[in-house]
Amino acid sequence: MPADEAAPPLDGFRVVDLSTGIAGAYCTKLFADGGAEVVKVESPEGDPLRGWSASGADTGGDGALFSYLACSKRSVVADPADSSDSAFVDDLLASAEAVVWSRGSAVAGHPDFTAAAIHARHPGLIVTAITPFGLDGPWTDRAATEFTLQAWSGGIVGLGRGAPDRAPVYVGGQIGEYLAGAYASAATLAARRRGVGELIDLSMLETQILGLTYYPVTYHQMLGRPWRDARKLTVPGIARAKDGLVDIGCGTAQQWFDLCAMTGHEDWIDEDSPLSITQQANEKAEELYAWVADQTVDEIRDLASAFRIPNAPVANGENVTALDHYVERGSFGTNPRDGFTQPGPPYRLTPAVLRAPEPAPRLGEHTDAYRRNRIPGPRGDSLAAGNAVSRDALPFEGLRVLDLTTFWAGPSCTHILALLGAEVIHVESTRRPDGTRLIAGIPATEPRWWERSPIFSGLNTSKKGLTLDLHTPRGRELLNRLIATSEVVVENFTPRVLDHLGLDFAAVQALRPDAVMVRMPGFGLDGPWRDNPAFAYVIEAAAGISWLTGYPDRNPYEPYSVGDPNAGIHALNGLLLALEHRRRTGEGVLVEAAMVDAALNVAAEQVIEYTAYGALLGRAGNRGPLAAPQNLYLSMDIDEFGRLDSWVAIAVTGDAEWAALCEAIGAADWAADPTLAGADGRRAAHDHIDERLSQWCAQRSADNIVECLWPAGVPVAKVMQPHRQTELTQLAHRGFFEEVGHPVNPATPHSSLPFRLSSGPQRFHRDPAPLLGQHTEELLAELGLTADEIARLAADKVIGHTV
């Protein structure tokens, strides 16, 4: 079959969707994009997401967000109280390879259709359970929302986001839901490679820890200090120009020097200053903001791009579709049923084997068809045919991955491969080591300082380390020989770097025709922004994530965290689809997993709401559309830094929770007030409710507030300092942190993966992160180089072990 007529990679993969909410819907959307047959089982009243609109618009039946997430799926209706319907659902499960499950529907809540019951009755099925805290442990049945999970994760204060004169703020939108969905998809596709039934127990708290914080426990315990101890505005960060908002990054010394030159202040450059770059920028904030205010967004961005300073416009639901880069790349399309605008897939495959979106189903549209044709399919045979590894092996065992990535986004993708069994060869050079080795705050006067980065350690356990100077002909020749031995090549440089090295997909295919190459540029391989430097904060601004983060009377805050790990988990999903296509056809595949495309997908609700309903979503501090009241409230605790700055998150999502809150805090008058009995009334009285809750919380410790409200069923959380994540009993129960020894650093807890696999492994980290070039000699000897040849490479500084 010609490549342009090839079946999509997940053709024949039947998935039953027993989930409600965004996480499960997004997981199964990624399956549907890959060609899977997704059968959504709904109770007679339908998935609650069908009636959802973040702006409160009248959806007229099916909401636009549902219509986006349900593209290409099938809908069947079943009432679990009816025995014939239960038998129908069980027949569907018997015919499927996987089921995605979460609490919240009558079907998923039936004793016969819990995740454990399904796994026990259908042991050959992959059951992926998405829950706030996991299927077992002391918190498994506790109430939670996106907002309270961000608080428990440490993500609300994780990277010092915001200003010290106000409460910290959560990352706007429902980012955690999408992260959980992307992880659930990757975990399911990885488990499928083993060809056996599996219970995948995914914790949304753990996905938020990986997506919203930057290895804070490892950092704190390895270096004895937190990554951040206070909230600080990034300068310039997001600033107001003549005609709109613009994001300008300044994360390195060189970028600060270039920013000084760009703004006409070379006199600010002081290479011997005892102040950090952040401190120097904050000292000049007033002058920098004045300069920005005197330019247009386009003028600033043209200058910043010329100086190689990270920059982006601040996108939102109204302006994002008109931005020139997205227009040229065709980043958005039209919903095939309801006509609003929606993002394209978060990755692009060549050959183009992803399925074009088909209209979302009406409630129960396919019930009759499946009732007539419910003969169980050949699940066991299809899994056996797709089995790429032995039943006892890790999912990626036997897969060699050449890892040309750096910093956070790329290594986070390849790290999951390594933790699940792949041989991942992380390539650096002594001239240009992985950037995370250099940003850990270790003075260069310290012995072997480049080996002491907790960030590098957190991202690179279980990998092998190789050094090659790719700016030398000999280094490039050896890299080419390694490519020929590798099934997968992953890189996340700007396109111009690979252009300079001559290492595009055609070059890789010439060396190994069946190789899968994953390219992770910030803004994609084409378009006017292709060569712009991309850090998380500019990606977040360019996609609209920043727009929803912060207070309505201030410029948005940069989340400063989501862009990288979100790109990494989406790149892994694209790679898994490519590997399946390669297994079926023998063809090599190019995966273009642009960071900004992944970000546009998790920020999709903004453009959908605007083009479907004309509603521009905006910042609301810590309030949000899902709950009322929802906010952070200051407790009486003095924090570990000596400040009155210890907060709790409270979110009331329904009338029963409101009644429970009133009873718990002794607010009988609230309970008796009919104007507060519904969400609209509580939203209208939010200021008054906040005032009284603030007074109540101010007289209590954070622990006392949680102990009072959580057992009553009210979603509540302490706003954790992220380096205190190990204090959470739920994480300890699940073994989320694993102690990892190291030849230079002390043994330190490392976060693992946010899911548990019933078939194992029991532990994810097998080896510490490699020392610089640790496995170079071993890997070159495998290529046939003699000891003398390797010694000459070291003498010529093509390879090495020190910076």
From TrEMBL:
Q: Does the keyword Ligase apply?
A: no
Entry keyword annotation includes Chloroplast = no
The alphabetized UniProt keywords are: Transferase
> Which InterPro entries would you find in this protein's record?
CoA-transferase_III_domain (IPR050483), CoA-Trfase_fam_III (IPR003673), CoA-Trfase_III_dom3_sf (IPR044855), CoA-Trfase_III_dom_1_sf (IPR023606)
GO MF terms held by the record: CoA-transferase activity
Superkingdom of source: Bacteria
One matching Pfam family: CoA_transf_3
Annotated protein name in UniProt: CoA transferase
Native organism:
Mycolicibacterium litorale
